[in-house]
Amino acid sequence: MAVHHQFDTVKRKWYHIKWFADSDTPRERRLIMKLDLLIVPYAFLAYWIKYIDQANLNNAYVAGLKEDLSFHGNELVQLQTLYTVGAVVGQIPFMFLFTYLPIHWTIPFLDIAWGFFTLAQYRANSFAQMAAYRFLIGWFEAAFYPAMHYIFGSWYRGDEISRRGGVFYSGLTLGTLTAGLIQSGASARLEGVNGLAGWRWMYIICAVITIPIGILGYFILPGTPEHPNKWFLKNEDVQIAKERLARVGHSVVHPKFKLSTLKSLANNWKFWALMLLDIFFWNGSINYSAGGYLLWLKSLGRYSQSKVNELGTISPAIGIFYVLFICFISDLVVGPAWAITIAHIWNIIGLIILVIWNVPESALWFAFMTTYSSVAMSAVLYGWVNAVMGKSSAERSFAIVLLNTVAQSTTAWTQLLTFPTKEAPQFKKGYSFVLANAVCLIITAQFLNVALKRSNKPVDAEQNAETGSTAASNSEKGQEEVNVTPEKSG
Where are the stretches annotated Disordered (predicted)? Predict the structure, then answer.
């Protein structure tokens, strides 16, 4: 029997925004609140510290690392690329392992290892050492983002994911902001303490925050319905979660990954369309991680190292608003395709200014303030993947990781070619390349939206036909009973 995806057809007016659906029972609402308190705060904290640890390379670079390690060429973008390579390589095993290993064990272990290699960076005295550390940090971080979206898709309906993912993803912008504040404070107050530069103290501080959050994950991360963490969840909670997802067509039977899963995905046009969309997203947002804003501030020559890092927090601070706004309107008002479009129209406006470059300084300030709109729809996109690929957990697991891996791997070379450090801060090639990808992202999202609506029509028609057939059959049976009963009674 065809399954009707309820969340695809529900239309809400803006003043009907609700946290729960009308169809959610009191028991389901209690479960949703419990999951919200377990998953969302931990996801936010872990992503927050990850982006402190990821963004701090750019902050350290403008705060003395460049001079202390004698960098003179494209070392910054090379280190960024090595991190990306590590993140891509590290994701590959988890295409298969998400359906085998308990995620509430796996993710905290990786987080703790990430923390130790973050700490190790304070000892770096050469490019080679920093390169090794950045690769390993990328490797241990690799599984986190797809894992969290796999967890979201394991417990929530498709129309519930984006706003929770938005809260989680705001950890990216807050982490980038916090990294700037930590580096600013370290440069101003810890420079030279115990013979260590301020940027080295920053890595020590980041590690001290990271490791306890990793340990916390063992206790509060709920895992998945097939491998639940029983610290806070009961068997009844797991059963309720399975029942409510089954009603909207999500698989409640979770098969392990097999080679047949690959064949099934390869024959699924939706998978390939989502991959193209994800590639355009990753390449349409590399401006946020290229360090262009910080490098521009430093090039002005009027701010101290501490002040550069303070001012560098403005753009990610605005990004928190972008993320929450885009994710909430996706779930509750406009849907994923239009949320992606709105976010990247704003991104495109800023990119056009950066491509032109020879504009008043105030225009450049404005353009850099739009940067984080480019990643504001990330949770929307992966929530969309969860919804579209939700019928099989094996396919969903593999799709989330493979999409992220392939798309991110393209940035390992595109960023190296289009954002060479020697061309900072203008990056004309880089901003032009990102602009083209942002335009393609919008076009692809709209085409995919139309195609998905058309592909769902036969499903709805089939369901209506089956419903009608069942009703007719029941009617005929009822008529027969009416005709037969008097004869029996007579």
Answer: 457-490
